[in-house]
Specification:
By secondary structure, the protein is an all-alpha fold. The chain has helices spanning 10-16, 20-26, 39-45, 50-62.
């Protein structure tokens, strides 16, 4: 099971879990210029609730599609 934490670097999270890019975009977290920094640092700078963002990121990588349970 993947566990994303606030101290992980955004670019590394996106590289490992491409589904997370949508979450970063939905939360309006700068994953381009802020991508080299930890999630917590960039999220705080962008005025985003870090705990909510981390929960959403983990849900995205642990959801049905991430487990290969895609509906047909």
């Amino acid at each position: 099971m993947a566990t994303i934490t606030g101290d992980m670097v955004i670019n590394e999270v996106i590289r490992r879990y491409p589904a997370t890019i949508k979450i970063f975009n939905d939360y309006r977290v700068d994953s381009c210029c802020g991508g080299g920094a930890p999630i917590e640092v960039t999220a705080r700078r962008d005025g985003v609730d870090v705990d909510g963002l981390v929960r959403a990121l983990n849900a995205a990588v642990e959801g049905p599609q991430a487990r290969g349970e895609v509906k047909k």
